[in-house]
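Researcher: I'm preparing a figure for a lab meeting and need a structural model of a single chain. I don't have an experimental structure, so a prediction will have to do for now. The sequence is pasted below. Please return the structure as tokens so I can convert it later.
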Amino acid sequence: MHRISVCGDGAVKETDGNTGNMVMTESKVPSLKRYAWISIGAAMTTILLKGVAWQLTGSVGLLSDAIESLVNLAGALMALWMLSLAEQPADEGHPHGHSKAEYFSSAFEGFLIFLAAVSIAYTAIGRLFNPQPLEAVGVGLVVSVVASVVNLLVARLLLKAGREHRSITLEADAHHLMTDVWTSVGVILGVGLVVLSGWNWLDPMIALLVAANIIWTGWLLMHRSASGLMDAALPPDQKRLITEVFDRYIEHGIAYHALRTRQAGRRSFISFHALVPGEWTVQEAHNWVERIERDLRGAIPNSHITSHLEPIDDPCSMDDQGLDRTSS
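Model: Understood. Here is the structure written out token by token.
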């Protein structure tokens, strides 16, 4: 039997009546789907602009830029789908929620970046062996610059929102858009050098360099997604914040062990065993653990906390630490 209560900060407390374990779930977080719609709009706008620039100039570099914008659109649509899934509440089949769906989106973004790089390289190699003169360069470059500014503004917006709300989906989409911006910068530079030097082979060569550069971003996104799906622990800076919270309660006779953390999209999961003096009443121990959990939620926003009470003077309490030997 579980007991449900609402704490002072709006978080929901669930207590297992059989084991005495206390489970803290986070308060409702805002929807991020509007950012995905902004990304979709930006992708459609830049596809149109870069397509026009390619048609005007005939530049394979600008064509590669337009291809990457098509990939951006696919990534934005995937982000919208996964954000919608991640925001669904926990249910019987998924008691910890659906927040891990965000990692599928970021992995997909990384794969799309690889796909864009291959497409760019394939097109550029063909043009490298068959250089062609460029046309209407001035107008084409202006259109491409406008598209790049759109991507830059949206990327900065998504990156800020992603970091603020700890959404790997928005961060991945932002990084993807930034690769598009750097691609555009490289292409514009290449086209400009072709005009100044008359060396038509510079256009596909720049496109190849751009393709090689964006592969790194794709690798980083896929690696980070894999870590999230494998239940990697919270990063060291956040674990340090957690330790600092526990350290504040040492003088009150409270220790801890079996500390485990993981991150799933926007949610952080923290579990620990609190060791308290055996002579304390259940109510007194409960009140102290409530304070610890309150401080943990302040240090790590949107965290799901599971705690377990144990008497500090019982040797058996030390037998369930598992792999984590952390103790204060």
